[in-house]
# Entry
Amino acid sequence: MSTRRQPKEGAGPERSALAAAFTSNTKGGAMIMKSVSIFLASGRRASAQSRDPAGSSNGTAAQPTGGSQQAKEHQGAAGTGRTTISRDNRRILARMDELNGKLNPKMLEMYKRRTHFSKVEVEALCKIYRKLVANASMNSKALAASNPGVIAKAGSSMDGIDRSVFRELLHSTFDIVTEETLMERIFCAWEKGYEGLPIRLEGWLMGLSTFLKGSQAEKTAFCFRVYDLNSDGFITKDEMFALLRNCLIKQPQDEDPDEGVKDLVEIALRKLDMDKDGKISFQDYQEAIAEEPLLLEAFGQCLPSDRATMSFLSTLQAQEDSN
# Structure
């Protein structure tokens, strides 16, 4: 029942999802892919420098070993200044850094432990996050400038990744083409505890960890959250009907296409309702997926295509190899 978009005719296997996004004719998509392209370009420059030891040594000035008295005094003053910052202010500054995608070594190590990414991959994803949030802020200000009746939200650059940026990201980078209801559910299910709010740095990293490198159990839990429309712990007949009806294409000659959707709901129940109580619990869903993994996206695509996953991960791997 799950559907995947077929690659366009003439597109070779070497054509990545990231590169294909440059053909997008929407302003939002162009801004997002500009962010990713900047990240890719920086990775290539770093890789080139690592292959050119002479250039690296010439381009980097040697640091003095002893240090001047002025430098020592400056360091001492900086240390004194840091001690005067209150604990509350430090927490606020740490929160601001997190929202802007900046990580101190302790946070970097924590996210490495909590995700399936290496430290270098976490840093690379933070850079992409910063660009996406900055572009969202620029789009908001541009919208306000062109539409006097629209007020740009103050501090929008601190809010995270919003729906419009997320939607373009799923379409152009992760090869997910689905209708609006399911797209909204993916956005809401991305970060636990923050349903419907802009995606913060922590949610961005944790969500991508499941999205790109998640175990079968992690992906099962994510897909269930997406399909459980009212978050009550069950996928009911009504929810199945809404999901399947939205993702199917109606044919003009169909007298009553809803009847076909109802038939699909009954088939899905036979496959997924393990305890036969007329609805699908998370335990039902887990057991069914364990027996037949192809049922994971039974009610619509909510995970990236294999090609898009490989393309994105190869980008992160190239960044890691260049360091």
Remarks:
- The radius of gyration is 24 Å.
- The first strand starts at residue 234 and ends at 235.
- The mean pLDDT is 74.
